[in-house]
Design goal:
By secondary structure, the chain is α+β, with helices and mostly antiparallel strands. About 50% of the residues lie in helices and about 25% in strands. Helix 1 packs antiparallel against helix 4 (about 100-110).
Length: about 140
């Protein structure tokens, strides 16, 4: 008779499967919250937010990638070949927003952000928010 692989065969396997699933669900909820926080920040302070966002967590790192979200004046500057000006403005503005961005990540993760970096690229437009977290309490 073939073993039913859809059912755990011991209590240890059941506990391991449950813990893994709970951990994955908690991680997924945190990743979604981080992505949503960065989208919300862009919408609130730029007046227009990204069209999509995704966050990843790995050890002491949070990485958020955001698609689109340029304002009409930034799009006009890009059409005129002024990527340098849009990038310079965006990066300067992100420096001003450091406390807001890192505060959201600290609140959501429960860990201090020890380093933060933001970058934007064009064609297609993507913004990357990178956070380095301090040690866990």
């Amino acid at each position: 008779m073939a073993k039913d692989l859809s059912q755990p065969s011991s209590s240890d396997e059941l506990i391991a499967a449950s813990d893994g699933l709970a951990s994955q669900e908690a991680d997924g909820a945190l990743r979604a919250a981080l992505a949503n926080a960065m989208v919300g920040m862009k919408k609130q302070y730029y007046g227009r937010g990204p069209t999509a966002a995704k966050a990843w967590l790995l050890d002491d790192y949070v990485f958020v990638a955001l698609d689109g979200g340029l304002t009409r004046n930034e799009e006009t500057l890009l059409e005129a070949g002024r990527t340098d000006l849009v990038r310079t403005y965006r990066l300067a503005f992100q420096e001003v927003m450091t406390d807001t961005a890192t505060g959201a990540v600290e609140e959501l993760t429960g860990r201090k952000v020890v380093s933060y970096h933001s970058q934007i690229v064009f064609d297609p437009t993507r913004t990357f928010e990178i956070f380095v977290l301090g040690p866990e309490a």
